[in-house]
Fold this sequence. Notes:
By secondary structure, the protein is an alpha/beta fold. It has a single domain, classed as SGNH hydrolase (Rossmann fold), CATH 3.40.50. Helices cover about 50% and strands about 10% of the residues. It contains 14 helices and seven strands. Strands 4-1-5-6-7 form a five-stranded parallel β-sheet, with helices on both faces.
Amino acid sequence: MKPVTYVALGDSLTEGVGDPVDGAWxxxxxxxxxxxxxxxxxxxxxxxxxxxxxxxxxxxxQTPRALALRPDIVSVVVGVNDTLRCTFDIHAxxxxxxxxxxxxxAGGAVLLTACMPDPGAMLGLPGALGRPLARRQRAVNxxxxxxxxxxxxxxxxxxxxxxxxxxxxxxxxxxxxxxxxHRVFAxxxxxxxxxxxxxxxxAPALDPERPPPTRSASLLWLATAGTGWVARRCxxxxxxxxxxxxxxxxxxxxxxxxxxxxxxALGAAAALGGLEAPPPHPRSPGQPPxxxxxxxxxxxxxxxxxxxxxxxxxxxx
Length: 317
């Protein structure tokens, strides 16, 4: 019997950063892959994720390689790095993800997606700096959620407060899961796939094999690798982020901060509204049911709600 081919696309999260094993990264996707097969039908796992990848990298480099492998399951978890660049464009993010999701499902593969917490909250940035990043991540999550519904993806909500607040799930860098976090991420995806009859193997164990990083390890990371990470972002994002922070403070003083939220929501809705409706895609037996929203672009109701809110929310500035 042909093995189940699982291909993982994305950035450092899917690459496995935060879960080192034998001098290499393992991560949630590898843990999930080990739980998808059976002795009669093993899993052939390919991890194409690369640290620092943005949606443009998944779209232009990783997806063609994935399609050449004729996969049965493809996970696409990406977008956080887009929010950390001065070139962030929610319209481009939506168009790329629409292409990637469409290409994956057109071949009949099961598509796995996830919404992620905003990096500002993870790093504990002050409000004026953190809120612009949070707005960007909410916009990406809105796009991912809507397109996941559009293409019938198995979608994991990983942006909830409980996930962010539990520090035992995260590694020393505060941006990537530690071993326990990767195990929880894999187990949540396994549960969703099992509910669809697509995960015959036992669920990944939740108990970590190694202790979580100590406080001294966290401080060491911040003083060494963490400093380098911040320095690299300073040359790209920080000048723009400081400008966004000034705008944030100005709107806060005027009492018009809600207008920034509405503007971001309308931008994401416009990005979704500008996409063409996809043709129906073939699906193999046992795959998730086809989505109900095949003929209309998702997000139109959300766009209407956002416009309604804007009528009652000042947006000057």
